[in-house]
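Section 3.1: Structural characterization of target chains.
Under the original work plan, the team committed to producing a structural model for every single-chain target entering the pipeline before any wet-lab resources were allocated. The record below documents one such target. The sequence was received from the expression subgroup and is listed exactly as submitted; it comprises 557 residues.
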Amino acid sequence: MQNSSTKIPAATSARLSDMIRATTLAIEANRDTINALNVFPVPDGDTGTNMLLTLRSVVEDMPLDPKESANNVAKIVARSALLGARGNSGLILAQYFKGLAEAIGEDTELTGEHLAKSIRIATTNSYKALPNPVEGTMLTVYRECAEVAEKSALANDSLESVLTDVADEALASVRRTPDLLPVLAEAEVVDSGGFGFAVMLDGALRALRGETPVGRVIEVPMPGKQKFSGSVKADFVSASEEIDWGYCTVFAIQSDSKLDLDKIRNHMDRIGRSPIVDGTDGIAKVHVHMEDPGEALTAGISYGQLSNIEIGNMDDQTAGWAADRRYSAATAAKPATPVDVAIVAVAAGDGLNDLILSSGMGAASIVEGGDTMNPSVADLLEAVEAAPSDKVILLPNNKNVVPAAKAVSELSEKDVRVVATRSVQTGIAALLEFNTTLSIDENEEAMNDVVGEVGDGRVCLASRDVTVYGHEIRKGMAFATFNDEIVAVGRDPLFVLTKMLELQAGDAEIVTIYTGESLSSEQVETATESLTNKFKELEIEVVHGGQPHYEYLVAVE
């Protein structure tokens, strides 16, 4: 235990705010490493990204007034963490902030005793929130940190002393996680969420002491003399790879009356897998793995109003960093003048955005988003409410965004029609049917009719080694999907694209290819010449899309 004679005894609200901001910077500095510790496929998605996005939502809502008391700061961040929690790790992380608020109570400073109590509360709530808690995870790190924090606080109540002891224990606890969870030992990694928590504590401690930088890179604490290689063991093959994980479904339920968390938890356990439910009297945050996310959303609506909906396809998740790309419906391009029927479309890429705006004939606005950066219900609702019409057609342009779009249609008082476009390619095809002289009913029918007639393909580079449905894909290799099935794998994106068209475009008349932001003008020119020469019977149009992650997006009609 630390000698408290010269240690910082407590944190005022201003220092507490600095510590919370420092945890965000610390996670940001170590995000890629935390993500790399995931054992693929990971039901939670990328842990580091989810923790970072959760913390950013906390920081965005923190009061700016330095005179604000520590207890009010803690209450505000606890609510923000719960509503902004992303994935499994984000929800477990939210328990820490909830514990902080409960531990401080009405006191105006954060002490070592408060910190110890907050981690104990987080531990209790986290184990309760999970129907089948697993040791060797972030839960274990919480529990072991709570035990050390309580002993340290009994020896002295210096915040710096307790936080120092807890930060040391967090790294030691993370090092032991492979001893408790065999899958970690087999993959030669430690628990990613636990390591993320240890990183947060290091950042908070450095901010408390006034040290810089608060967000330093931390070496992964591996067992024995092992060193983390930077990725999951190459020949690691988990039995979980054969599981159809479905969709990671996260949402908040808000009600004017008290919510029965146990009842909601049991309900989610009946219809899904790995449910986590926690909250306060009037707010519940739900995380559950579903084959049909709509079933969970329907169940949630029966308890109250839904918000902060996040749907992730866990079978398709790769390491694209959503935190690198911020999207905001408030800054979306909007039509300048009132229209009879407005269009709101989800897209990412300067070329795609320009095409959507021009095809919408002055009626379209855009919400930035797509794969790995799905907009929330709040983002979509804000754009719908800002649209210059009481009649709005919403194009989600991603199958994972469709549930959020449907939730918007229920939340908005406007007449909102969701055309369930599964990709931006199908969305553009639908938008080309839009006619400003027709009613919303007529436009909706015409757009729905064309959606099923468009096949959508994608070509991208693998960000990690994986075997999917018999296809062995190595990091850096190109692979093509058509209507969500892998159809070709190879070293060269153009070769893979060509192979996909050979297999899928036999009966097509028109093929539109949207080129991604990573391609040079020379690559685009080579692809255009090669494809038009090879497929002379097809009408091929190559359009600058500028989309991230995908070298090519393809619409086959």
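The radius of gyration is 25 Å.
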